[in-house]
Amino acid sequence: MKHLNTLAFCGALLGAMSTPAWAETTGPNGETATASSLVTVSDAQAETLKAGDHSAALLWHDQSDFVNAVTAGASDEFARLGIKVVATTSAGFDAAKQRSDIETALAKQPSIILSLPLDPVTSAAAFEEAKENGIALSFLSNLPAGYEHPADYAAIVTDDLFQMGKQAADALASSMGGKGSVGWIYHDASYYVTNQRDNAFKATIEADYPDIEIVAEQGISDPARAEEIANAMLLRNPDLGGVYVTWAGPAEGVLAALRANGNKTTKIVTLDLSEPIALDMVRGGNVVAIVADEAYELGRAMAASAALDLLKEDVPAFVVAPAVTVTADNVKEGWMQSLRIEAPASLSQ
Amino acid sequence: MTRLSSRLRGLDFQQAVVYFGFLAIFLFFAITLYDDGFLTQRNLTNIVLQTAPATIMAIGLVFALSAGEIDLSFGSIVAVSALSCAVALQSFPLPVGVLVGLGVGVAIGAFNGVLVAYLKLPSFLVTLATMGLFAGIARSMTNLRSIPVMNETFTGIFGSGKLFSVPSLVIWTVLGVGVGHLLYRHTRFGAHVLATGDNPRAAQVSGIKVPRVRLYVLMICGGCAGLAGLLYAGRLQAAKYTLGESDLMTVIAAVIVGGTALNGGKGSVVGALLGSLLMGMLNNGLILMNLKVSDQMIVRGLIILIAVAVSLRDSSR
């Protein structure tokens, strides 16, 4: 075990030496990242919180396995701290509904709000009343424009975005034997989370793998167009060794294109768990790895940061939860580590 | 007793559904959520504020449906109008921004109207196509970016301001319903709309310019969507391409529950207001009940299904 730790340390050191100096996740305003494992509420602090009759509202942007896992992480932590969850909403990516959800939840006078602001611009006015009421705000991934830490919010909690992109690059490079040509399908929108992940993949390939060349770059804003984008990319680059796809939704389209072309050699790496993608991976198809975040841990850290803010403790402005590389060998463990649910039955058949 | 029963017989059941439904759901939430802030003045005001844009859209749709037409593109018009207004406000004074926002809405409505009224294309297909067309334009006109609205006079008039302690969105709702009701019930144009929806051939024979009525109702629908876009932009202090996208089904349900017939010839602006408030009240109450999001959707869907079924079943008799 000791040897393994030493090896891991040496590996990390080598990795740190070969990646660029800026190779880390930074906040929307350049904040330095703090590991989520460092944001914890002690048992003594939990007792103080239990006496405070606090409540929380979880005002999410959408519904998904990811949001369910974040909710579970937050709910479990709130239960430990004696904080009652009084409202849960989903805005369905509608900025106007998110504002309405906030107003409605305020009728229950929560002490804490956990939320993913849909958009820095539209969210600024939406959270204004909650901010003025002194509610402890912990944000997932995005920050409303003009909000200052620690006066306006407790923390932004997000994935270790750089690590997600880097681990995707490492996994793809490893599957290609460290050489060949790669296509880079990135999210063509000004969105902090995907932009950081996509750029981390590209930077890692360029800095750490001199024998791998990114020969095709294509942005995507509509996941439904992934298949035609991949077809065009394969037409121009028939010997493509691998493709990075910005997240699992469009990766399903890329996979469909490869299958339609009878292509069994081009490798795919993507981010965020998806059953069809994972199924291809465990069956030895084109997909070699999926890099996921620890969604449950994100929820726990959001709850903890807001609770610490209620206690007037110092909370780091920008908190990141680790990334996990899921391959055919660890799909069950990876699923559990990321979402805290069993992997779908189809993956163990 | 006899007088009461004769009055009940004369009551339009379809239009009454919304009144009974509204009252029943209000009483249910008032009792079950008494300790959860439902009955507070602030929460009840919030419901009106949150539904103001949908109410304005619903008024436009009452005119279109009553004339036997439908507009599926109003959600996309909301986004294009809000974005056009926000972009204009960055360089021009407030009146120009407002005129641009409203003008874009009316112009798109006129575009739909010309295709329907003079090229004789079905409004369902025309507006289904223009819904996609203008959703694409909304996305491309600012390259998916949200545009902040910094003009405080604008955000006061169309969003967060108050006049004599009455929130501006409440004033817009009252104004919209008042003007819409007058136009619909107490003008020749309103009668022409109903006659066109009831029997277009008979309306034409009796001298009503049916194509012009069809053009005008779709222009009203576009104008109402444009105003709803301004209200969203004022409320959020920003405009985004997604504004209005998710309102299509809610607004159609509000209008149908409010007593407007899907096949024309019958409708109610006041009913549409109550239908819209009912939808807002459902959203609000189900959140305050602390139901899971999926359970909120199931319960909301079931209640709307029951209300629409009861309302349409009676009208088909």
From TrEMBL, chain A:
| Keyword flag Signal | yes
A Pfam family that the UniProt record links to this protein: Peripla_BP_4
Instruction: Give the Periplasmic binding protein domain ranges.
Output: 60-307
**Which UniProt key words apply to this protein?**
Signal
Query: Which residues lie in coiled coils?
Result: none
Where does this protein reside within or beyond the cell?
Cell envelope
Which InterPro entries does the UniProt entry name for this protein? Peripla_BP_I, SBP_2_dom
* Cell membrane is among the record's keywords: no
Question: Into which family does the record put it?
Answer: Belongs to the bacterial solute-binding protein 2 family.
The name this protein goes by in its record: Monosaccharide ABC transporter substrate-binding protein, CUT2 family
Taxonomic lineage is: Bacteria, Pseudomonadati, Pseudomonadota, Alphaproteobacteria, Rhodobacterales
TrEMBL record, chain B:
Enumerate the transmembrane spans. 16-35, 47-66, 96-118, 124-142, 163-184, 215-234, 269-290
Q: What name does the UniProt record give this protein? A: Monosaccharide ABC transporter membrane protein, CUT2 family
| InterPro entries per UniProt | ABC_transp_permease
Q: Which Pfam families match?
A: BPD_transp_2 (PF02653)
Tell me the superkingdom of the source.
Answer: Bacteria
Q: Which organism is it from?
A: Shimia sagamensis
* Main localization of the protein described in the UniProt heading: membrane
Q: How does it sit in the membrane?
A: Multi-pass membrane protein
Keywords of this protein's UniProt record, alphabetized?
A: Cell membrane, Membrane, Transmembrane, Transmembrane helix
Keyword flag Membrane? yes
User: Is Membrane a UniProt keyword of this protein?
Assistant: yes
Q: Where in the cell is it found?
A: Cell membrane
